[in-house]
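Hi,

I'm pasting everything inline rather than attaching a file, because the server keeps stripping attachments. The sequence lines come first, and each chain or strand is labelled.
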Amino acid sequence: MAETIDELVKIKPFSLGFEEKRIHFMKHISESIKFHYENCHDYQNYCKKKNFHPDDIVDISNIPFLPVDIFKKMTLLSVPESEIIKIVKSSATTSNIPSIIHLDKKTANRQIISLNSILRDFIGEEKMNFIIIDNKKTLETNNQNLSSRGSAIRGMLIFAKKFTCILDENLKLDSKVISELENIQNSKTCIFGFSWLIHKILSENKNNKIFKNFFSKTSQSTVLHIGGWKKLSDLSIDKQQFNKECSEFFNTNDDKIIDMYGMTEQLGIVYPDCKYGNKHVPIFSEILIRDPNSLEIQPDGQSGFIQVISPIPNSYPGISLLTDDIGEILGRDDCPCGRKGTYFVFKKRSEMADPKGCGDTLDI
Amino acid sequence: MTLLTFKNILSDGIIHENLEDDLESLIINLKSKKEWLHSQKVDDLLDYFNSLGNYWKNSTSGNFGNNLKHISEFLSRENLAKELKISLRGNFLVLDDFVQLFDDSEFLYHTQPRGISVHWIAGNVDVLGIFSVVQALLTKNLCLIKAPHDYSLLKKLILSFKEVSTEKIAGKDLLNCITLVYVDRNDISNQEILSKNADIRIAWGGEEAVSTILSLKKNFFTEDIIFGPKYSYAILDSEFLKDNLKNAAQRLALDISIFDQYACNSPHTIFVENDDPQNPHLVKDFAKELSNSMETVNRLILPKSQISEKKSMEILSLRAEYDFKGEVFAPKNTDWTVIYSEEDGLANPCFSRVVFIRPIKNAEELGKFHSRKIQSIGLGISDNERQKKLVDLITLLGGDRCPYVGNMSKFHSPWDGIFGMDRMVRWVSMTNQ
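And the predicted assembly:
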């Protein structure tokens, strides 16, 4: 049994069966809740209003959740402000207001270790050359502030032997970098980027002979992509189509294209697709699916809001978050890929369907 | 997949649901009913609508929805005659003939219908659209209705016209004066045909939808009647609540729950004035009482319909925000939400039975939040004289109707500041010889 959360994140992420994992997870999530309850006054009040005390926890389903966009509206801290080393902002796709997440050293370290541990399970131990579908300026920080894109890219660089950002400042393919890429042509390569940005680049460069020629000489690159399914859904692009575009352009197989689900509000935890198209929950997080109207826990096989629970956040109480993403738990411990624990599918971002009428004033 | 852009849903009294028909031909056909409608007597039309209201009220087979109680009351002969009389300068027989108005012996007056009334009906308040259709028919205007995307209830209501007949009017004849079509908002060509053929453009909808309709080309003499976009709220004072706490909560729960707050007359904020030092918890007590009533209304009278995932998340997010900075009264599901906070001003509407309760020191100060976007102000004020002064003060810049709480959803004229039926007719004068 891992004694601390920091030890927990060192366990192989998909090595424990659901029941065994549950014992570890309950211990650490209970400690984490207690920590936030004692150190974040607002969170304590919130729990009290939900008639919840950390000592009463019997199951993860009775841990109060915060809607994920609460971090767009307020700052919640469980450590003194002086301990904050980094502030990460989300992409603000839907509301134009970003979530602002304050990270202390402990949280940042846990995030690095957990991300490392999850991704190693999918892409292996060997460091690779990374081709980043973004501009290098995205990685720059401004007074501790970092965009979620920048943060995700930085997180990936621990797997990189060398990396090259291949977009210019206008987020267009930069043909000037092709000479840099020639040097990595025959080595193991990983292409990483945000899903919507990769789609944009692929759409704009269907006839770009320079890059197509380059990728025709690389073989079987791994493509890791994350974030932006909202934008792709708006364009009616589904995963199958996206994978087809990717495999054609980057000259790789479908099963080398890995979609990762994750969010700024719980950085460090990603849920990558296995080759059977299932997303796997690591040992240091758990998910629940809630009915969008009743908010009751859905049985496996039924879709609803994805609730993500993890003891990793230390500086802010983002340990139990209800997302507006719709998913479905497919099973536990029995995915043909061999990974243990819960596995699920991400289905879509929640959609706006309510009509507005004569009461719809844009502002008052 | 072909996107649906135009559909003839109902014309000539028959359901067509036809994608192939041509809108201009439908309009030509509709115009051919003009003389028949003009020849009907207003008394006979009043009888007909009274019978239709009774039919809807008593219909168990049709399942016409929960919001029809108000419509049935609106359709009563007594109510419609009053509405007509107020709108048409005291004498609704002016619709049939040249008549004298007030003490003017020099002229006789008569109203003519303007012609074709085109109704753009918002999806969330399809039943409200019936109000403008009835008013248009009473003033002898033909009706071309642009249905919302989900038009099943509206179609059912319109089609049921033929189930009702009176001694003088057969419902099927009146139904012939209505054409119901679906035109996609992006089908600019057919939207323009609707607009160009309208003698009256009646738009029910939000800011974006109404702006789009108003930007369509129209004839020089076309009359525009805009219903929405509007915001409504309520004011209660402590003296009033002393004897009416429960009653006010029950009545407001109905105002909030009808149309799930998507209508322009649905309250989003309830201001409670508390100058009673003996009862510092009055406002919160009212919030609690309202939450009880919201639950009762949801359970027994107006069950909440399914909402989108996005709206559900919006509600949960708002609840969490106010769990931190106010107090939230809500069930575990998203059926209704009462939010108490000590913030100033009008709360941004969330719709979907989310209401904000805010204490206020002095209701007279609410005028500063008024603009033409304010429609209904539900009132629970103990002192009549103060109420009149208060309403005069706060409605100077906006605010069109100030019903007693519980009556906010009752349609009556003026609505949005206008007597609709007056705007639906063309006045003709003739020297009285």
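Chain A is about 30% helix and 25% strand.

If the labels don't parse on your end, tell me and I'll reformat.
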